[in-house]
Write a structure and sequence with these properties.
Layout lengths: L3 E4 L2 E3 L5 E7 L6 E9 L6 E6 L5 E3 L7 E6 L4 E6 L8 E9 L5 E3 L3 E5 L2
Parallel strand pairs: 2-11
Antiparallel strand pairs: 1-3, 3-8, 4-5, 4-9, 5-6, 7-8, 9-10, 9-11
């Protein structure tokens, strides 16, 4: 069973930065998309950004220009660099790996990001 483990979350002031990491518990093959989602209290989970195996990236409008997603396939890791953080970015952030075979769909346990002064 594959586990995805997120790290790098925490409390930051508005305008600050955080870098999230998500690493798989074992080497993985056939992973197409790696992504980050978030869920704020009382809201549905939403896509933040994802990146595919060809290097393409996709960002939600609310993070464009502020967040950057990247991946290291050799390390089975995906990153999310978050800059100019706002209070509305406060949420639990989840990583997700999706294989070329759609049955390969893995989620991390989530990590809290709180933006507050």
């Amino acid at each position: 069973q594959v586990q995805l483990v997120e790290s790098g979350g925490g409390l930051v002031q508005p305008g600050g930065s955080l870098r999230l990491s998500c690493v798989a518990s074992r080497s993985m093959f056939g992973i197409n998309v790696m992504g980050w989602y978030r869920q704020a209290p009382g809201k549905e989970r939403e896509l933040v950004a994802d990146t595919n195996s060809r290097g393409g990236t996709n960002y939600a409008d609310f993070v464009k220009g502020r967040f950057t997603i990247s991946r290291d396939n050799a390390k089975n890791t995906v990153y999310l660099e978050m800059n100019s953080l706002k209070p509305e970015d406060t949420a639990v952030y989840y990583c997700r790996f999706v294989g070329y075979d759609s049955r390969a769909d893995y989620w991390g346990q989530g990590i809290q990001v709180t933006v507050s002064s």
